[in-house]
Sequence to fold (573 residues):
Amino acid sequence: MREIVTIQVGSYANFIGSHFWNFQDELLGLAESPESDEVFKNHSLDMDVLYRTGETQQGLLTYTPRMVSVNFQGSLGSVSSRGSLYDQIPAKNMDVMTWKGRVITHASEPLRRNLFLQSLSEEGQESVGKANDLDNVNNNSPAEIQDKDIVECLESDVQYWTDFSKVHYHPQSLYELSGLWADIQEFDNYGLGKEAFCGHQHGEEIDDRLRFFVEECDHIQGIQCIVDDSGGFSGVSAMFLESIADEYPNVPVLLYNARNPSLHMDSKGRKQAISHNLHDAVSFSRLSELCKLIIPVGLPSLSGSRASQFLRIEDEKPYHSSAVYASAMHSFSLPFRMKQSGPSAESIYTSGALDMYGTVQMLAGQMRQNMVTILDVAMPAPSLSDRAQQSFLGNLQPLIPDIAEDVEDFHAVETMNIHGAVTSGNQRASINDVKDAVECAYDNSVTRPKFSHLSASTCPLPIPLPFPMIFRDMVGQHGELLETPISGSSSRGSIEVHSIPMATRLRSSTAVLPFLERKLENLRRFGIERGAIGAPLLQSWGFGKDEVEDMGEVLSKMVTTLKPYPQYSSDSD
Fold:
């Protein structure tokens, strides 16, 4: 086993993380359920890669994510930062000994748990108090009604990422930045995040949380970090990643920098637009220096993108869009935890296991030294039937804007993962079916990458109860695409759709050039050029002229690395 530690920094990053861990929890439950499909019982995934075993003071065994979450104070909603498995630590006595006057304590009412969290609490109490009680047989109908109520409740009212989380966390996992409250509006730039990390001993405490998980690993394969990079949390993340680079220089860091589409919905004036564009460039430049591979995710309008052709997304709901990005993250990272067969043995359940280091070397190593990748997704993945093979690659759509289409890149490198695929008649596709279909799709394609790695699994993406109602009316119970839409059902969720086939592709390609060039152009125009209108703004964020120019050099190097024929060079020899 080679462990992975997960880091989630910022509100939107934790929304994505909440869905991601719900998928893992669902897989764990389905593997143990006698009623579940055989494909879930034999998923051949090593969950210990992401999870750790522990024990409470009462001697109860625990199995929790190896994860550190960082967010505002008050961002956990009705959930305790200590989690629910371990004893609560009494609050520290805050009396000031030199004060002789009267002390008044003002305590707010605890937030009321929603229907979903109430149901989790009831299930936990029943499993403890009625572990051997099998008398109640007539629970099916009430449970079904309750599930519908839960799904409707979540659709109408999700405020915190914990509102839909079904996972138990370790007390070291959930960290709140004291002094920064969840409803703060001005935590909107890199400089504030940097100050927050360095102040109030936050940096040391966060580092200690990570150290707790890393030091108990036997052979850590890497750290996957999800970052909300649209405001102050980009600064928090950069400072955190700097300390990681200093303390664990040989541990690969894979970074998902995520962007909430709801941020693009508010109309902005010119000044706000300049601030947004500058911050986007600064954040991307700084974060990219602190990881081995960066995976941007975040479309200005996910609902209007081709990635959502079978989905019904409401961009204003982070609960919706984060589910798509989490699904892609889960699918892409499956090879990191596939169980390895012997050197000559072939598994009928998985193929193409790959660790994080191998992925980094493949995409950003000697073959192509580009660390900025494009994550494409097909959700759900189409059938692998003969007539669909030619369009299979066309169903993979990017999750970031400004990507060039139909680019002929003879040096492109990619890794593709397909899991839970179906073939003609909606039959489960075998591993060999997947390999043959992908090879056929590339044979019929105008261009193909210089190198492509394929990973496959027979296990589809399970849809947990708290998953949002984002499937369109042509998506069937097992993610099959129906020829005739289901009447009277514009949006479908976990009650109607139980699992879906998925396909993801991570590629290093010149198609990402427009995405990078736009960031470089914005930084030069608004921050570097003489008389740049955004220079005072950058200074207020704590950046000097030399630092801004260095960030421009970082982005410029990314662009020139990918340009087939650089338009300019600093050396004449």
Remarks:
- The two ends are 49 Å apart (CA to CA).
- The CA atoms of residues 125 and 131 lie 10 Å apart.
- Residues 89-97, 130-145, 567-573 have pLDDT under 50 and may be disordered.
